[in-house]
Amino acid sequence: QVQLVESGGGLVQPGGSLRLSCAASGITFTVYKMGWYRQAPGKERELVAGISNGGRTNYADYVKGRFTISRDNAKNTVYLQMNSLKPEDTAVYYCNAEYVLEKQYTYWGQGTQVTVST
């Protein structure tokens, strides 16, 4: 059974930092591309950052320079370090795992709430 379990969300003041974690089980973690998405109320889910199985990263323009995605293959875990948080970063953040070989395998976590507010 595949599980992606996020943690690390919470309430933080503007300018603050949070680190999200996503622990994966039930998959061969090293072959999967991992990503973080977010969904704010009334908006569609959007990509925040991704990291390939080789460690190549990509970011949405609105988080470049503030967020950093990383992975620890020994722990089957992907991280999202979020600095200089803004109120518009408030959303539910979801972990995503994706692998394509003859067909696409995609899995999602349950999400973790991040609220940036005074």
Essential attributes:
118 residues, mainly beta, 56% strand, globular
Describe it for me?
With 118 residues, the chain is mostly beta strands. Helices cover 0% and strands 56% of the residues. It has no helices and 11 strands. The protein has strands spanning 3-7, 10-12, 18-25, 33-39, 46-51, 57-59, 67-72, 77-82, 91-101, 103-108, 112-116. Strands 2, 4, 5, 6, 9, 10 and 11 form a 7-stranded mixed sheet that branches. A 4-stranded antiparallel sheet has the order 1-3-8-7, with no helix packed on it. The protein is globular and about 45 Å long. It starts with a strand and ends with a strand. The mean pLDDT is 97.
Topology:
Elements: E1 3-7, E2 10-12, E3 18-25, E4 33-39, E5 46-51, E6 57-59, E7 67-72, E8 77-82, E9 91-101, E10 103-108, E11 112-116
Parallel strand pairs: 2-11
Antiparallel strand pairs: 1-3, 3-8, 4-5, 4-9, 5-6, 7-8, 9-10, 9-11
